[in-house]
């Protein structure tokens, strides 16, 4: 009945969904059983739309299949990297001389500047002195002539020595300036080499990317054709299915009854504990109904049986005493009643 309730025919604007049955034999058990068949019939407009989608999908698949030769031709050849720009050369830093080399170079440069500036002046002064001495009738070899030239050369030598001393003082700063210029020039050259290497690498990567893109163009086009929207059947609306009737929960009922009985026993035991605790010494509750684990250990006064026992209600202490019903037979005045239970006044039972 539940299965029949859940096999309702559906009629929607999209179409119909119907169930039919067949009587077949279960191959596993050999018993006859019902085979259900679900059949969906679309509305004519929906059916035409589905046919159009399937036709479009078929056309795309066939077009993609026609591109197989193109794809095979593109991927049958290994990538060709010939003719592409070479990879950028490794860039190395340029060497710059040490401070000592620049010190010597700076001193030579300063003295060269002095000589270039002063040497013509020295020559001119020597020529003027020689002319003056000849005009006075002196000639080379004369003492006055030779002494005059010697004095002039001495003065010029002193000027050059002073220039060398000043050059030594200035060569440190000049050496630093010259070394700084070389470092700047080396750095600029390194940057230029680096830029040229990076440009060559970028150009090569661009060429490789373009080559790989050309190789995969046909494959990408074929994938675009066959990965279009797939044909989908219209969704039929769902409805609330019938649920199976549940059997009586006998196990739960038995468990509930057991819990109720246990709760009642716990209440009774608690009441017993309250009654036992309410009796003051030398009175003792001796009603059998309040005791458990009763065991006779001997005979007391007047032949009364003597027992060990525990009270109900969870107390695990072991007590020794009489039973009220047996005491009542010989000493009725020793019996007291509390909440319907008998207690023994041991003060009235001879020891």
Keywords:
alpha+beta, 3-stranded antiparallel β-sheet, 351 residues
Distance between the termini: 81 Å
Can you count the helices? Answer: 7
Roughly what percent helix? 40-55%
> Which series of helices and strands comes N to C?
HEEEHHHHHEEEEHEE
Average pLDDT taken over every residue: 81
Explained architecture:
This protein is an alpha+beta fold. Among the domains are: 116 residues; 95 residues, no CATH class. Strand 1 and strand 2 form a beta hairpin. The two termini are 81 Å apart. About 2% of the residues have low confidence.
Concise account of the structure shown:
The protein has helices at 2-5, 44-66, 68-75, 99-135, 143-226, 250-278, 324-330, and strands at residues 10-12, 15-25, 32-42, 283-285, 291-299, 305-311, 319-321, 335-338, 341-345. By secondary structure, it is an alpha+beta fold.
Compile the SSE list and pairings.
Elements: H1 2-5, E1 10-12, E2 15-25, E3 32-42, H2 44-66, H3 68-75, H4 99-135, H5 143-226, H6 250-278, E4 283-285, E5 291-299, E6 305-311, E7 319-321, H7 324-330, E8 335-338, E9 341-345
Antiparallel strand pairs: 1-2, 2-3, 4-9, 5-6, 6-7, 8-9
Helix pairs in contact: 2-5, 3-5, 4-5
């Amino acid at each position: 009945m539940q299965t029949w309730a859940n096999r309702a025919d559906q009629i929607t604007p999209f179409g119909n969904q119907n169930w039919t049955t067949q009587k077949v034999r279960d191959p596993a058990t050999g018993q006859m059983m019902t085979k259900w068949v679900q059949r969906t019939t679309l509305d004519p407009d929906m059916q035409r739309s589905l046919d159009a989608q399937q036709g479009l999908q078929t056309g795309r698949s066939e077009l993609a299949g026609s591109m197989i030769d193109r794809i095979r031709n593109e991927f049958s050849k290994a990538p060709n990297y010939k003719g592409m720009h070479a990879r950028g050369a490794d860039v190395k830093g340029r060497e710059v001389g040490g401070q000592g080399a620049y010190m010597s170079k700076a001193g030579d440069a300063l003295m060269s500047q002095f000589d270039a500036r002063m040497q013509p002046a020295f020559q001119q002064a020597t020529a003027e002195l020689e002319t003056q001495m000849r005009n006075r009738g002196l000639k080379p070899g004369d003492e006055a002539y030779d002494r005059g030239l010697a004095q002039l050369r001495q003065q010029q030598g002193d000027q050059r020595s002073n220039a060398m001393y000043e050059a030594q003082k200035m060569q440190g700063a000049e050496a630093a300036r010259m070394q700084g210029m070389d470092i700047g020039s080396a750095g600029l050259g390194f940057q230029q080499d680096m830029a040229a290497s990076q440009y060559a690498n970028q150009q090569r990567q661009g060429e490789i990317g373009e080559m790989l893109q050309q190789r995969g163009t046909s494959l990408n086009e074929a994938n675009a054709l066959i990965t279009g929207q797939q044909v989908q059947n219209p969704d039929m609306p769902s409805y609330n299915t019938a649920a199976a009737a549940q059997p009586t929960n006998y196990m739960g009922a038995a468990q509930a009854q057991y819990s109720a009985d246990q709760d009642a026993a716990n209440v009774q035991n608690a009441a017993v504990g309250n009654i036992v605790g309410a009796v003051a010494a030398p009175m003792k509750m001796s009603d059998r109904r309040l005791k458990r684990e009763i065991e006779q250990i001997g005979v007391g006064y007047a032949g009364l049986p003597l027992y060990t026992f525990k009270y109900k209600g969870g107390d695990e202490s072991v007590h020794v005493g009489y039973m009220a019903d047996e005491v009542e037979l010989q000493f009725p005045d020793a019996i007291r009643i509390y909440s319907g239970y008998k207690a023994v006044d041991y003060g009235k039972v001879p020891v």
